[in-house]
Amino acid sequence: MIDVRQQVNDVRRTLGDRTLEAGAGRVSTISQVYATGIDDLWSVVTSPERIARWFLPVSGELKEGGSYQLEGNAGGTISRCDKPRGFDASWEYGGMVSWIEVRLSPSGDGTLFELHHIAPIPEDTSFWDQFGPGATGVGWDMGLIGLASYLSDPDSVPDPKMMATWHETPEGQEFIRSASDRWAEAAIAYGDDPEKAKAAAANTYGFYTGT
């Protein structure tokens, strides 16, 4: 089992800006070092069989120019593939389009996994005001804890029922609360109003836990 407090502490979260063709964009970055080699981690994050063990079942052509679909979640097109250093893809969900960039690099005896999620800044900022970066950030945190759990025991078989209700357990709620608060800290460091960032974190926690 993964220590949820240690997992939250092992992850780094930052926010930044990027200029897109359509205008201004915001970048949420989440990263963690894993105790495995870069070639193995590349396989973990690109093999459909292994992705399903720690994230979600995925279908499609997982190659440059191919499309993908995560079961019950986002889909998109893979625009760049640079084995084993990373890949870029669109992230299309709920009628909205953003982009992800996954980067892998050696770090000591392990490998740094770094994911940049780039989204255009909309004219209507009400969603950001309500939830802040944790709206998508906590989802990525849950992906990274799944990745850490899988790498700690690659032979384990995930229980879909347990995964579907984990947010209802004390451990799951502690993790979501802590991850939401850390994204609030990232938002404050980025320049968001501290009280609004904390309120957004509380809303994010409520959304992910159904409370």
Written account of the structure:
This protein has 211 residues and is of the alpha+beta class. It has a single domain (4-209), classed as Alpha-D-Glucose-1,6-Bisphosphate, Chain A, domain 4 (2-Layer Sandwich), CATH 3.30.530. Helix content is 43%, strand content 32%. It contains eight helices and eight strands, in the order H-E-E-H-H-E-E-E-E-E-E-H-H-H-H-H. It has helices at residues 4-10, 38-46, 48-54, 126-131, 134-152, 160-165, 170-190, 194-209; strands spanning 12-20, 23-34, 58-60, 67-70, 75-82, 86-93, 96-107, 110-120. It has an eight-stranded antiparallel sheet. Helix 5 crosses helix 7 (170-190) and helix 7 packs antiparallel against helix 8 (194-209). The model has no long low-confidence stretch (mean pLDDT 96).
| Principal-axis shape | globular
What name is given to the CATH topology? Alpha-D-Glucose-1,6-Bisphosphate, Chain A, domain 4
Strand content: 25-35%
Biggest sheet strand order reads 1-2-8-7-6-5-4-3
The name of the CATH superfamily reads START domain
